[in-house]
Amino acid sequence: MNEGPGSAPAGEPAVRKARITRMTFAAQELRLISALVVILGLGLFLALPFVLSIGSVVFLPLVTALILTIVLSPLADKLAGWGLPNVLASLVALLALFAILVLAGLLILQPAIVLFDTLPAVIDQIGQRFAELRNQFAWLAAANDRLAELTGRSGNEVVVATPSFLEEFAYATPSVVLEVLLTFLMTFFMVEARVRLRRRLLLERTDFGASIKAARVIRDVQDRVAAYILTVTWINALVGLVVGLAAWAFGMDAPVMWGGLAAILNFLPYIGPLAMTAILALYGVGTAETALVGIIPAAAYLGLHTVESNVFTPSILGARFTMNPVMILLALSYFSWIWGVFGALLSVPILLTLTAFFDHVGRPNLIGFVFGEPLFPLSPAGEADDPAPAEQQTARPA
């Protein structure tokens, strides 16, 4: 019996069912792979601090050299464009960075050494101020002692002997010198090899689209990190200039040191300005006639930082460098835990580098994955506006 024109073929339900089964299996397989990727990523995130901390002598110079290479590559390219050989251009760029660091260190350390002689008197006056404050709150100490007696806690304290500052400095100096030497050597060789690295990343791809994507990633990462660091450096230098002039106006000793210290600490988001405020407050209390007068420099700096961080810096950097404050604090605590102060200084450039990288290769959709969406988007940001024609996507560059 012939089927009517409107009837479906006999095997179509089975084919549809098989197609649905395959699609369901593919979706489950995608979820399984995504779950494995998330588990591996979390394991790497938790294990990485221990590996990087134990091998800090190798990993810290390597990461620092990568950041410095990104910053110094535009200067080396400009010097090479003026006719200098690549090796000489790389060396001049590195020497320029070294000269800036030495000059900044001299501007801060030389007045600090002169000011070091007055440190005992400042500490004594700070102790007197705190003793006066403690006398005003003597009733609170008495209540604490009474509470300790009622709860049966012993007032004896165990003091653990720790190495002195000079001993810790002597132990740390060889490691610091080795890490600085490795950092500058790695930076020089990376800057010198930048042209070969770019050519290898662009020409050794299997298709033209991959070459275009690699070029975009390299250019965007370099532009973002270098522009951010240079812009923030100019802003912090201006902050240091204002703080130095204010310290001179307030009659503080070594105003150049205070300006340089404010400029350097301003590279640390949130923590640096808080530390600078605390230092100014302690020094002011230890040198001024009254505690109220002593906290005026700290209050003035806090007002300056509030205007700079909420009005001045956002208007200059713009939306391109805007990052989530939670991510900044997470990166700051994460890398400070691993490498201390140096990790805190590198946290924002590392976060900016990763942000620029994931903007091109695609960011993990962690929240959407919880609700059943794919972990990684099918088309990363910036891929849809690829200027290369479709017929050239498989053509190898010449």
TrEMBL record:
Q: Which family would the database say this protein is a member of?
A: Belongs to the autoinducer-2 exporter (AI-2E) (TC 2.A.86) family.
The protein's name is AI-2E family transporter
What GO biological process, any one, is recorded here? transmembrane transport
Q: Which UniProt keywords apply?
A: Membrane, Transmembrane, Transmembrane helix
Instruction: Tell me where it resides.
Output: Membrane
Q: What is its main location?
A: membrane
Topological type in the membrane: Multi-pass membrane protein
Which superkingdom heads the taxonomic lineage of this protein's source?
Answer: Bacteria
